[in-house]
């Protein structure tokens, strides 16, 4: 077994807020990082308009950006994400950014990184206006620039266990087994302290907290016509 | 941020009377306004436990906010007032500074 010659696999994740990478797909991040995949994460904002200010609260609106930036850096260490880029957009305003320039920024990043896999939010099912806006821009950028690679949309929890409910079929879904990486995911949850202090379960014993995580994380294929890939692996 | 003492917080708010102030105000789940500039003419804090703040400005304007619980004067001389619920979630914020807040 000689992997020396194998080209580095690369993953680019384009998300909106610190914690998206951990709360939604932290197990997958940790899994691929542990396999040597180079991961680049974009967080469009610093989550500076969040509502959870610690419990009891120790943040205010003006201290939040720096606190959440530091939390995200720590979470990246927990998950094995090697490169972190902030776009510097104010939280809750991504949909009001100039779309062409936002697409352009992501497009140049895709050309620079040359990722095998791009992850972002679905532009309609993102669940938050910032999510939908960054997902829409990243999808457009991917269509323009990716000569190779595959686009996937991250999904919440076990929703895609039954994709029929959302008008999709099993064929449209990749299910990644993350069980072996839920400990790293839990560490990342705890790194996002001001956001998770309100959730008592996160701070129970590791054993108790880990029972809250599913065995799988689910991704929607961004291009249903792409060559059929394995349904348990993004690469 | 420390629990609001009405007298102290009102004294801090009143320091902005007669001056141009940049204001950040928000009802967290609904709206925010960042960096509108007003000349403050009157400043009030009322209530106990949970407080109301009110500003009159520019000879024709009002800003009133309720559910404030905490305040501080930060290292840059800005007055930060906020309302948290019992689990640390922000409901409202009202910040005044003599310089614009970072955009």
TrEMBL record, chain A:
State the superkingdom: Bacteria
Record's Pfam families? Answer: PIG-L (PF02585)
GO MF terms listed in the record are: hydrolase activity, acting on carbon-nitrogen (but not peptide) bonds, in linear amides
Cite the PANTHER family for this sequence: N-ACETYL-ALPHA-D-GLUCOSAMINYL L-MALATE DEACETYLASE 2-RELATED (PTHR12993:SF27), N-ACETYLGLUCOSAMINYL-PHOSPHATIDYLINOSITOL DE-N-ACETYLASE-RELATED (PTHR12993)
By what name is this protein known? LmbE family protein
Which organism is this entry from? Paenibacillus montanisoli
Automatic annotation (TrEMBL), chain B:
Which Gene3D superfamilies is this protein grouped with? Hypothetical protein YojF
InterPro entries xref list: DUF1806, YojF_sf
Judging by the UniProt lineage, the source's domain of life is Bacteria
SUPFAM superfamilies according to UniProt: Hypothetical protein YojF
Q: Which is an annotated Pfam family here? A: DUF1806
Q: What protein name applies here?
A: DUF1806 domain-containing protein
């Amino acid at each position: 077994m000689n992997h020396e010659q194998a080209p580095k696999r690369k993953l680019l994740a384009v998300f909106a807020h610190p914690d998206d990478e951990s709360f939604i797909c932290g197990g997958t991040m940790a899994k691929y990082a542990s396999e040597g995949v180079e991961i680049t994460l974009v967080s469009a904002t610093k989550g500076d308009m969040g509502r959870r200010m610690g419990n009891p609260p120790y943040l205010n609106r003006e201290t939040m950006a720096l606190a959440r930036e530091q939390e995200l850096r720590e979470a990246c260490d927990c998950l094995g994400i090697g490169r972190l880029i902030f776009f510097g957009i104010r939280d809750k305003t991504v949909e009001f950014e100039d779309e062409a320039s936002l697409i352009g920024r992501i497009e140049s990043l895709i050309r620079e990184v040359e990722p095998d896999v791009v992850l972002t939010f679905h532009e309609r099912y993102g669940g938050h206006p910032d999510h939908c806006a960054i997902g829409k821009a990243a999808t457009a950028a991917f269509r323009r620039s990716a000569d190779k690679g595959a686009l996937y949309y991250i999904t919440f929890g076990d929703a895609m266990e039954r994709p029929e409910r959302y008008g999709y079929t099993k064929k449209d879904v990749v299910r990644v087994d993350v069980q072996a990486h839920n400990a790293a995911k839990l560490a990342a949850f705890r790194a996002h302290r001001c956001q998770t202090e309100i959730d008592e379960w996160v701070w129970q014993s590791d054993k108790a907290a880990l029972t809250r995580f599913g065995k799988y994380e689910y991704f929607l294929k961004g291009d249903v016509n792409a060559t059929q890939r394995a349904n348990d692996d993004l690469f | 941020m420390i629990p609001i003492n009405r007298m102290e917080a009102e004294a801090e708010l009143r320091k902005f009377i007669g001056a141009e102030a940049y204001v950040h105000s928000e009802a967290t789940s609904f709206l925010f306004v960042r960096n509108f500039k007003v000349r403050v003419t009157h400043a009030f804090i009322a209530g106990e436990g949970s407080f109301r703040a009110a500003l009159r400005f520019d000879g024709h304007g009002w800003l009133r906010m309720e559910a404030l619980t905490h305040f501080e004067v930060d290292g840059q001389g800005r007055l930060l007032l906020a309302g948290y619920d019992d689990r640390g979630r922000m409901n409202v914020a009202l910040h005044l500074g003599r310089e614009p807040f970072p955009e």
